[in-house]
Design goal:
It comes from Aphanomyces astaci (Crayfish plague agent). It is found in: Cytoplasm. This is Importin N-terminal domain-containing protein. By secondary structure, the protein is mostly helical. It folds into 2 domains: 75 residues, no CATH class; 91 residues. 68% of the residues lie in helices and 0% in strands.
């Protein structure tokens, strides 16, 4: 019930705790995967989720969802693109960096959500371009280096015709950010 609390710090801490449990709990967390996803999904889509006083708590709930999606294969693959649509996080910058680093690690490891559903690859590419264009992180931060490595890996994963299509769907700011990175 703490995740659904009206008190933002409690909601944030509970979401963070669920994220840790998902990442570190292994098989012991399996019975809780589906109910936890349902709870967090309801939370991030609640009426007050993106209100200024709740945004950090919601960011932690989105991050917890990502941890579960990246650690447990039993969930429907349709959840991953829906989760990507919630990114990038803009309230809790620390959590945003940690989450983007987990996405980058998934790219570098050719995670199942990318290798088995290639339609997610352009979505991740667009997400990283968006993060770069928003300049959420300084170029010397570890997360920036992780994004650069992941983007280089994506360039080899994405066929040219798909890359061209993704490129055309990007904003001018996203294109400029990628140009600067690859220059």
């Amino acid at each position: 019930n703490c995740v659904a609390s009206e008190y933002p710090p409690l909601r944030q801490a509970a979401s963070y705790g669920l994220s840790l449990s998902a990442r570190l709990g292994g098989a012991a967390f399996v019975p809780y995967v589906n109910p936890t996803v349902e709870l967090l999904w309801t939370l991030v889509h609640s009426a007050d989720a993106w209100e200024p006083f709740m945004v950090n708590a919601t960011d932690n709930a989105v991050s917890a969802l990502g941890s579960i999606l990246l650690h447990f294969d039993s969930l429907p693959s349709t959840l991953f693109p829906q989760w990507l649509a919630l990114l990038p996080l803009r309230g809790d910058v620390e959590e945003s960096a940690a989450l983007i680093q987990r996405v980058c690690a998934a790219v570098l490891a050719s995670h199942k959500v990318l290798s088995e559903d290639p339609s997610n690859v352009p979505r991740v590419l667009s997400l990283l371009a968006e993060v770069l264009s928003l300049q959420l992180f300084e170029p010397d931060q570890p997360v920036a280096k992780d994004m650069q490595a992941a983007l280089h890996a994506l360039r080899t994963m994405v066929p040219d015709h798909v890359m061209k299509s993704v490129w055309q769907s990007m904003s001018a700011a996203q294109q400029a950010a990628l140009h600067a990175l690859f220059a």
